[in-house]
């Protein structure tokens, strides 16, 4: 029996406790009963409210909601599956809903990943700080991008598991860790970060393959580990197959799928339109933000102090509330439409990364260097269209994601990793003189570049694209001066940080610092001094508010509408940005909403009709109330007497040849009496007689099941003010399944025989039910495999 050495475990626990203290101190307002008000968390809760209410009542999570964009699947909003690993994720997700736990997660996962690949405890802790303190991680936390936070937190562990499977002895353990962690990441369902994680791993595998062929060890170095990882991939994807397939299948019909419209073809891809996908493209010169946080002015709206030129000018012109005005100034002058802050990786990390490029040898360096360059070039988006066009047109899946600048998360992983690998090698290298020469060259490159920026600071214009629209002529020169001051101040700051890092390693090389762990502690201090003040610019105490019982407070307009006992009608709220806000969905069934994957046809309806206040289209969507700004801009409810209700009979159906004609026909039409149907749908007749006593009405409402009664002396066509989605919605007349069709570009139509009938629409996506059973089987296999292999490894560690 081996004597178990508890010291490494104890040391690791103490480090995690240190990470916890750092995380809690950072968000200290929580101890005063405050909470972080995160925009996207609130938007999600508004979007998911209907689903969650029905889940509380019935125990089942609906797969369709009518609360947003007039109706859409909940696959990317809120669903529950049979994946047993989901219970682990739910416990994990409940914990990391709190900001302090998300920050802690950044550190702990990176720490464990570095330990897994064989890094020492102290260097693993330092590397965790390098990774977890990236400014972007705190910016998205402030915004409430929780699933993205989780996916980025897990990312290092997935890559580490792949590395261990290929490069270490514990290949079976590495593969099963890979399977479990990937399964958790897929549950988070931030597929864009999963995509970037896959790209990191695929490029690594390519380097492994090259090395295996070169050394003629294809079987042991590549094939066996690849088969183990492939098995792990199948288990992870199989465990999430219901969610994964539903997302994939729905994606074809969302804005990430191909449009049927044939206009503006040069801007289209098989996924997102190019201008939409590249709207948030990092500027080429803006890339310097990775090293100098305020190089382009920081966030779109930043606070200036009373020493600023802007404040002095405001006081000079006797502008009232000057102190309040400078709290929100447009300091950003880059070319993105808007930004919450820069992707600042850190001056110390960048310096050590450059050192790693010069000093580290082998495929690891080239893997990380290649990915860093690729991610930066792709982040430039429309500023570097040859590469962007190639990836959008030919690289599988790339055109499904918007905000191309997000790919910088790859650099936020690769640069800290190469930095910590360089530090490790420096501590272990016996040829300190040669190592120091490389270190000196790296400092010369980074320090020289920063000095060049400082000397040439006056050559930049510091003018933003919309300055003339936002600021008076007499104030603009002062703001430009403040932008320059922000840049130069941060250039000097970054130079000092890089110099501090160089100084610590210089002292270690000359044995003035004799122990490597002391140098690690000092480097940790430098990275904290570097990153925490910058992160506080974007996530600070001002972002916390008093915890409230209710997420959204109903306005007088909301209360008026909520008195209506009709179970199913829609509301259009013009007091918010209607198609970028889900607060209305918290109380009502909204025409608008907030989601990055709304239905493609609905987005086209927004662009062509709803954004142009086409009242006929609003009426066909059963928009019973509009919320408009009233006296003192307070929201007021306006009743729309022309809303067409839940369903109605039409006299004429016009068959049109394609999507272009169908959408174009909605610009001027009479929705009460006519409908437009694509020629792909077959109807028995197109002209109908409606007797004076004919009616069709909703009798029962559930998000997944709608009941109607109809009566008409003649056979007829009814139009329903519900969104058509053939991958799940079924129509029944008197309990007999019957075909229905799409009408008016987005709605449902149904041929109804003469007489009195009961009509039921049910959302029954068979593919989801089938794939959910597959998820149950694979998740059980995954959990059993994980527990068995981990138990086996623990037993090996405790016995000879």
Keywords:
five-stranded antiparallel beta sheet, 28 helices, 19 strands, 800 residues, alpha+beta
How is the secondary structure organized here?
Elements: H1 7-26, E1 34-36, H2 39-58, E2 64-65, E3 72-73, H3 85-96, H4 99-116, H5 121-132, H6 135-143, H7 146-167, H8 171-188, H9 191-214, H10 218-239, H11 241-251, H12 274-277, H13 309-316, H14 322-325, H15 347-359, H16 363-379, H17 385-394, H18 408-428, H19 432-455, H20 467-470, H21 476-509, H22 516-535, E4 544-546, H23 556-562, E5 570-573, H24 583-587, E6 589-590, H25 600-608, H26 615-620, E7 623-629, E8 635-639, E9 647-650, E10 652-656, H27 659-665, E11 674-678, E12 695-702, E13 705-712, E14 716-723, E15 729-733, E16 736-738, E17 741-743, E18 747-752, E19 755-763, H28 766-798
Parallel strand pairs: 5-6, 5-7, 10-11
Antiparallel strand pairs: 1-4, 2-3, 7-8, 9-14, 12-13, 13-19, 14-18, 15-16, 15-19, 17-18
The dominant shape is: globular
Strand content: 5-15%
Radius of gyration: 29 Å
In terms of per-residue confidence, which ranges show pLDDT below 50 for 5 or more consecutive residues? none
Trace the largest sheet across and list its strands.
Answer: 12-13-19-15-16
Q: Helical percent range?
A: 40-55%
Count every beta strand, where a strand is a DSSP E run of 2 or more residues: 19
Kindly name the structural category. alpha+beta
The biggest beta sheet reads: 5 strands, antiparallel
How large is the count of helical segments? 28
> What's the overall average pLDDT, rounded?
93
Distance between the termini: 6 Å
């Amino acid at each position: 029996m081996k004597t178990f050495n508890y010291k490494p475990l104890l040391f690791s626990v103490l480090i995690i406790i240190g990470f916890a203290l750092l995380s809690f101190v950072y968000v200290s307002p929580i101890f005063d009963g405050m909470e972080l008000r995160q925009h996207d968390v609130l938007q999600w809760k508004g979007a998911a409210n209907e689903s969650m209410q029905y889940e509380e009542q019935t125990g089942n999570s609906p797969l369709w909601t009518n609360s947003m964009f007039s109706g859409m699947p909940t696959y990317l909003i809120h669903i529950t599956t049979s994946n047993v690993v989901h219970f682990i994720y739910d416990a994990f997700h409940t914990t990391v809903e709190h900001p302090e736990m998300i920050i802690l997660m950044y550190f702990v996962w990176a720490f464990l990943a570095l330990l897994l690949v064989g890094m020492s405890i102290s260097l693993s802790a330092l590397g965790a700080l390098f990774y977890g303190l990236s400014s972007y991680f705190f910016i998205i936390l402030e915004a409430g991008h929780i699933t993205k936070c989780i996916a980025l937190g897990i990312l290092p562990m997935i890559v580490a598991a792949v590395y261990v499977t290929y490069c270490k002895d514990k290949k079976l353990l590495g593969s099963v860790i890979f399977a479990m962690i990937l399964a958790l990441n897929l549950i988070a369902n931030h597929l864009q970060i999963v995509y970037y994680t896959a790209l990191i791993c695929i490029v690594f595998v390519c380097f492994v393959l090259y090395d295996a062929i070169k050394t003629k060890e294809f079987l042991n170095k590549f094939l066996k580990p690849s088969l183990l990882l492939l098995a792990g991939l199948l288990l992870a994807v199989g465990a999430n197959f219901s969610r994964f397939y539903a997302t994939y299948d729905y994606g074809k019909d969302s804005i990430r799928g191909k449009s049927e419209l044939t206009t503006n073809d040069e801007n289209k891809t098989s996924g997102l339109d190019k201008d939409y996908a590249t709207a948030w493209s990092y500027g080429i010169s803006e890339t310097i933000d990775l090293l100098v946080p305020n190089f382009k002015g920081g966030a779109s709206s930043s606070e200036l102090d009373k020493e600023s030129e802007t404040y002095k000018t405001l006081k000079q012109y006797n502008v009232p509330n000057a102190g309040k005005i400078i709290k929100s100034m447009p300091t950003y002058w880059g070319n993105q439409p808007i930004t919450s802050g820069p992707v600042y990786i850190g001056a110390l990390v960048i310096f050590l990364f450059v050192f790693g490029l010069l000093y580290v040898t082998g495929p690891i360096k080239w893997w990380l260097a290649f990915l860093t360059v690729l991610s930066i070039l792709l982040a430039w988006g429309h500023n570097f269209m040859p590469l962007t066009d190639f990836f959008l047109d030919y690289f599988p899946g790339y055109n499904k994601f918007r905000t191309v600048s997000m790919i910088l998360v790859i650099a936020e992983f690769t640069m800290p990793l190469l930095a910590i690998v360089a530090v490790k090698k420096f501590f272990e290298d016996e040829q300190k003189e040669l190592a120091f020469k490389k270190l000196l060259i790296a400092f010369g490159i980074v320090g020289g570049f920063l000095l060049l920026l400082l000397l040439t600071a006056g050559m930049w214009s510091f003018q933003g694209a919309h300055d003339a629209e936002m600021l008076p002529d007499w104030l603009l020169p002062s703001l430009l001066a403040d932008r320059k001051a922000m840049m130069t101040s941060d250039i000097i700051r970054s130079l000092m940080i890089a110099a501090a890092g160089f100084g610590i390693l210089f002292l270690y090389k000359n044995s003035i610092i004799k122990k490597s762990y002391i140098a690690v502690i000092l480097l940790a201090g430098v990275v904290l001094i570097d990153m925490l003040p910058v992160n506080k610019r974007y996530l600070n105490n001002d972002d916390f508010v008093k915890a409230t019982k209710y997420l959204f407070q109903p306005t007088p307009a909301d209360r008026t509408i909520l008195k209506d006992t009709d179970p199913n009608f829609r509301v259009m709220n013009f007091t918010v940005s209607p198609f970028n806000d889900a607060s209305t969905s918290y109380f009502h069934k909204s025409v608008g909403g907030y989601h990055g994957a709304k239905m493609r046809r609905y987005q086209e309806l927004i662009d062509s009709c709803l954004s142009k206040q086409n009242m006929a289209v609003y009426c066909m969507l059963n928009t019973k109330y509009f919320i408009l700004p009233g006296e003192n801009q307070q929201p007021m409810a306006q009743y729309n007497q022309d809303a067409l209700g839940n369903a109605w009979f039409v006299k004429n159906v016009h068959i049109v040849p394609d999507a272009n004609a169908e959408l174009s026909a909605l610009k001027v039409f009479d929705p009460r009496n006519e409908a437009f149907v694509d020629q792909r749908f077959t109807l028995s007749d197109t002209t109908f007689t409606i007797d004076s006593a004919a009616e069709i009405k909703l009798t029962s409402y559930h998000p997944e099941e709608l009941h109607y009664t109809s009566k008409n002396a003649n056979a007829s066509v009814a139009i329903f003010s519900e969104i058509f989605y053939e991958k799940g919605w079924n129509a029944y007349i008197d309990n007999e399944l019957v075909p229905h069709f799409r009408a008016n570009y987005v709605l449902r139509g149904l041929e109804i025989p003469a007489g009195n009938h009961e009509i039921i629409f049910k959302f029954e996506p068979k593919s989801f039910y089938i794939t959910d059973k597959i998820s149950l089987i694979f998740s059980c296999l995954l959990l059993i495999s994980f527990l068995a292999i981990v138990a086996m490894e623990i037993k090996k560690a405790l016995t000879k």
